[in-house]
Q: What sequence folds into this?
């Protein structure tokens, strides 16, 4: 093994043991240090640049053959949170936290009860909960998805998994994350018996294909039809039985549908909108008569810029102060050098009581413009196809880690949501995990719910491009 000294931007050192010939990105991933790479480790982007013995290079391209010193452009973080939001029927658990889990106040492992594990396999993050037969949460776990070093969005994961080697790599990373989480959950609950606990997994369609070892290639090209939408059951040695919950389409996975089913979208008397904001923007609009679904490409903008919805808060402040105009252009001298923004809300989320500084560049703003313009256009057109006016939407559920910290006034001020949504928005956090816990054993109901969803392709809608462009402005 080769010793590599890795320093973060605070000059904190960690010693890592590398195998000869492995890339620096692979080494860092084994030690839970991740880049939000955009190219799947092919070297086409510039997201993973580091200093190796004083020379700037891409971590995905640098093969380790000798001892070296590496300096990262970010700080090591021991804390990672996956936000669940308010519980309805599944216990009380506001946060999921890696390496520092919040267990419930319930007694520890009781042999007479049956236990199972629910997993939200997200593109960026993984949330897990150990739940008993009464749907009470006994322990929780969250971690970054180790796959993210091979692409920050679904499109890049699909491209990387297009080869057998790439698919195997991503599958093993997901299984390793789940195995680590399962061990931590059972240990937290006071049991070493991990063999008899079944695992129920919700996630987007691509993540579930990769987890099951199926190529997601067909999801990445028109007509975006997945190889599998149905529920699947696979046995994994030394891990147990994985139950993969059913999906509705190539871009509407079980992470969205279990949440929408949990919030009874199909029983609403008035049109109700369910939006999951993450690396994609998935939305369902429905009532008791019918349900439509659509997906828009948000990219990593909602998750990479600052933390959570502080991006919107920052841009709203910049717009109000005239630092950024309606078109999203920074005023001088910020256009070239970026705008220095101090976020207290981010520090509050981390719980460390510190102010966090960041530089918001013109490119950051453009990326968020593309994402929020796509979401707003999607809302417009899904209403048009549903046969209702936007004003007729009675309730708006906003799910996802980004959505949890969303401030209604910022989203409306920046024209991400229409003004008529004021007072109608309910932020629900990680509804995928809630829905998994509540609905994992209701396979027929989930399947029927998925079968009732009609997916529309927004790119084919006559006015999509026009709406998209018009809603990019602030």
A:
């Amino acid at each position: 093994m080769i010793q590599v000294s890795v320093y973060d931007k605070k000059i904190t050192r960690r010693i890592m043991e590398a195998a000869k010939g492995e890339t620096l990105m692979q080494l860092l991933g084994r030690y839970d240090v991740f880049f939000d790479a955009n190219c799947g480790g092919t070297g086409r982007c510039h997201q993973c640049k580091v200093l190796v013995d004083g020379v700037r290079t891409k971590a995905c391209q640098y093969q380790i053959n000798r001892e070296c010193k590496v300096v990262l452009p970010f700080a090591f973080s021991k804390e990672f949170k996956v936000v669940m939001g308010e519980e309805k029927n599944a216990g009380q658990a506001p946060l999921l936290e890696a390496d520092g889990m919040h267990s419930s106040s319930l007694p520890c492992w009781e042999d007479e009860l049956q236990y199972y594990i629910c997993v939200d396999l997200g593109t960026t993050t993984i949330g897990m909960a150990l739940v008993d037969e009464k749907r009470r949460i006994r322990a929780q776990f969250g971690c970054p998805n180790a796959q993210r070093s091979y692409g920050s969005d679904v499109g890049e994961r699909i491209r990387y998994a297009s080869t057998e080697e790439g698919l195997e790599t991503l599958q093993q990373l997901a299984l390793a994350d789940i195995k680590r989480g399962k061990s931590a959950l059972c240990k937290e609950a006071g049991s070493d018996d991990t063999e008899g606990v079944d695992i129920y997994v919700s996630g987007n369609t691509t993540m579930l294909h990769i987890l099951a070892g199926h190529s997601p290639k067909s999801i990445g090209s028109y007509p975006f039809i997945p190889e599998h939408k149905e529920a699947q059951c696979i046995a994994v040695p030394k891990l147990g039985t994985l139950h993969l919950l059913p999906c509705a389409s190539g871009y509407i996975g079980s992470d969205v549908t279990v949440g929408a089913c949990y919030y009874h979208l199909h029983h609403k008397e008035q049109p109700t909108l369910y939006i999951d904001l993450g690396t994609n923007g998935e939305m369902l609009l429905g009532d008791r008569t019918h349900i439509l679904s659509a997906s828009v490409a948000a990219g990593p903008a909602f998750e990479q810029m600052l933390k959570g919805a502080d991006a919107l808060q920052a841009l709203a402040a910049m717009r109000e102060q005239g630092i950024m105009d309606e078109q999203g252009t920074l005023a001088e001298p910020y256009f070239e050098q970026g705008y220095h923004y101090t976020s207290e809300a981010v520090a509050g989320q981390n719980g460390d009581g510190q102010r966090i500084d960041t530089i918001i560049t013109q490119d950051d703003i453009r990326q968020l413009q593309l994402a929020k313009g796509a979401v707003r256009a999607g809302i417009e057109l899904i209403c048009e196809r549903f046969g209702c006016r936007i004003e007729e939407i009675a309730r708006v559920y906003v799910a996802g880690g980004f959505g949890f910290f969303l401030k209604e006034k910022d989203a409306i001020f920046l024209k991400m949501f229409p003004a008529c949504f004021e007072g109608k928005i309910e932020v629900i956090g990680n509804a995928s995990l809630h829905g998994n816990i509540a609905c994992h054993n209701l396979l027929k109901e989930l399947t029927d719910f998925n079968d009732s969803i009609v997916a529309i392709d927004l790119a084919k809608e006559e006015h999509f491009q026009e709406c998209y462009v018009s809603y990019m402005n602030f």
